[in-house]
Amino acid sequence: MTEQQLTDAVHEGQRKRVFDLPLDTLTMSESVQLCHRLIAERGHWRADLNASIVLAALEDQRLREYVETSAISNADGQSIVWASRLLGAPAPERVSGIDLFLELIKSAPERGDRVFLLGARHDVVQAVAGIFTTRGVDVVGFRDGYWTPADELDVVREIAAARPDLLFLALPSPRKEHFVLEHKHRLNVGLAFGVGGSFDVISGRLKRAPLWIQKLGLEWCYRFVQEPRRLLKRYLVGNTQFVLLTLKTRISQRS
Fold it and tell me: pLDDT value at position 2?
């Protein structure tokens, strides 16, 4: 079986639906393999399913469109893994954005993948670009996440001129999803990929939860302790709403 046939087989039949949104029930290694295929095809983007994205997609049609038209949609949050198993479309494991991001960065030097970093503060994204460059990654551009609507087309032109294979966006949702959809035909990228607060972690501005906390599915608690004011509504209110939505969906399935 060729690599293309293998990745076709991986994707075929493994795209399920949870909360009426697509979810690819892939492992980390399968996700890496599929991303490499999508980079070669160009013009694709990844969706990261977590509790807040599911809730936001109920109200935001553009965000829903982004997820629906994504070429790969991972269970980015442990809550999605648990919900998918309860709702009959079990994800084999959590494929977090930061872990998949770092796997693609790890293979980028050998594959020759060109990388553009977009988002976060200037000092943060500059630090990440420097770290990756020392690892042999071809960072063809970087820019912080602070620009006015009047400057947005200049940002798009800068990315397109660099012709990156991987565009990593450290922008909040739904801003990053709206940006990709609005400019998908202009960006000239292989795979666009939202990475949330990953730049802050890689640069050392924030610490990531220890591995044992990650394995328990409680990484959100660790992040909340570091940024309580910013994450209070998202985690405490949002997670409660997500649990209620999961129970409502499960009851609906059974009836």
Answer: 47
| Confidence grade of residue 239 (pLDDT, cut at 50, 70, 90) | confident
pLDDT number for residue 44: 97
Is residue 116 a contact partner of residue 89, using CB atoms and an 8 Å limit?
no
Distances (CA, A) of 218 to 63, 221, 233, 235: 26, 5, 17, 11
Q: How far apart are CA 172 and CA 230, in angstroms?
A: 12
DSSP structure class, residue 131: H
Cβ-based neighbour number of residue 76 at 10 Å: 25
Query: At which residue do the structure tokens 């970093």 appear?
Result: 117
Report the candidate in 60, 43, 82, 29 with the shortest Cα–Cα distance to residue 172: 60
In a 3-state reduction of DSSP, which class is residue 217? coil
Does the domain formed by 22-203 have CATH 3.40.50? Answer: yes
CA distance 227 to 223: 6
Q: Are strands 72-75 and 114-119 parallel, antiparallel or unpaired?
A: unpaired
Burial 6-39 (b: 16+ CB within 10 A, else e): ebeebbeebebebbebbbbbbebebbbbbbbbbb
